[in-house]
Amino acid sequence: MDEGLPTTELQDYLRARPETRFVDALYVDLNGFVRGKRYPAAKAGKLYSGGMQMPEAHYILYATGDSVDPCGRGFSDGDPDCVTYPVPGSLAPVPWAAEPRAQLLMTQARSERPPHFVDPRQILRLAAERFAETGLKPMMAFELEFYLLDPAPDALGRPQSPIQPGTRQRLASMQTNSMEELDAFGSFLAEVDAACRAQNIPSSVACTEFATAQYEINLDHVDDPLLAADHAVLQRRVIKAVAQRHGMRASFMSKPFLDRNGSGTHIHVSLLDKAGRNVFDDGSELGSATLRHAVGGLQAAMAEAMAICSPNLNAFRRYGPNRFVPVNKSWGAQNRSVAFRIPGGSSQARRIEHRVAGADANPYLVAAALLASIQHGIENRLDPGAPAPSRNVSGEVDPDIPFTWQEAVDRLEQGTVLRQAIHPLYLQIYAAVKRGEHEQILSEIIPREYEWYL
Fold first, then answer.
1. Please, what is the average pLDDT of the chain?
2. Looking at the domain assignment, is residue 432 inside a domain?
3. Which string of b and e fits 292-319 if b means at least 16 CB within 10 Å?
4. Which domain holds residue 306?
5. This model's pTM is above 0.85
6. pLDDT of residue 117
7. pLDDT tops 70 at residue 173
8. Which of 72, 331, 351, 423 has the fewest CB atoms inside 10 Å of its own CB, making it the most exposed?
């Protein structure tokens, strides 16, 4: 998006909602955090005509918000600006705002400096354009697990479950698919649904998950990976904002509790040919040869993609044997212990469920990694091997997969698959940011050091 868009979208919106006071211009950084600026509605037309100027380094901040010059970008280069423009169709109301407000997504315009983009949304766009060379169109949907928490920690500073609405008791049950729990938090879920509808986010089925106060709200499939990732980013924002309105905190942290299940990002993907036919469907439970080649590509790139699927120290706590979290490169039908699951149902909806990423992973970058991996597998006709048997296979840890943060970042830089679709310099920047975050975490003495070594 290299030039301003017509302001018709904004004009039509303000004509229909003249009470709007502000427009929030949002962008998403390397960590998947939503940042932005707030414009008076009368000034928002400038976003379309001239774009929003902002330091390019704000796309590659640490999780702490620090800008620390990864690969010489931020200080060494004089901290230059980049220009971002609105994403067409993203202008929507902010239902939870105290004053009438709108929001829109912004995306980076082309830069003269390589790589052309540090905007994760543009990283995905380039991967999707490359994938289009296959003649296939991805159908994609995200499933994000999250916890509802009390906004106040316990006496030891740890997160705790919220007080159940209508009672004075802290939620303690672990009832998966509990209708009673959905009813108890019904006003929260209803407001999430209403906010998603107002923002054209196709939220769907809600359920309680396999841990106390853990939930999932599905998103419908769309035939545009960029739009699917937009939906995931914006749904996370809705859930967090609405939870705060209800006196709770929503967390997409991968492993907030050591004794409870972690939260994942499960991505469902199928591929359509030019006639709109699902090429993964051959009438069988395991799918077509094309599906198997796609799985082979996901297997081939799994190790180098771990740093993107697990973007922080905590995310690696989610992995472990016998947790129904991937610890190997297995695949198979109707088996939640594998990394790449083939869900049941109509063969016309045959798809791959990618179960590797944590809920705090950046949806744009994970989707870009998936497209790169699948394309690699299809073009090279990779064989995924035999499917897993109908039993738990998550006790068999694959030594080739990096399950520590530092090792995963090393494997990302050493990899050969993702760099076919993601600029190698961006992968270096990503790795530099993650190494820097790791160093910042280690810069403080943790209590256990005193317990063990003082």
1. 95
2. no
3. bbbbbbbbbbbbbbbbbbbbbbbbbbbb
4. 130-422
5. yes
6. 86
7. yes
8. 72
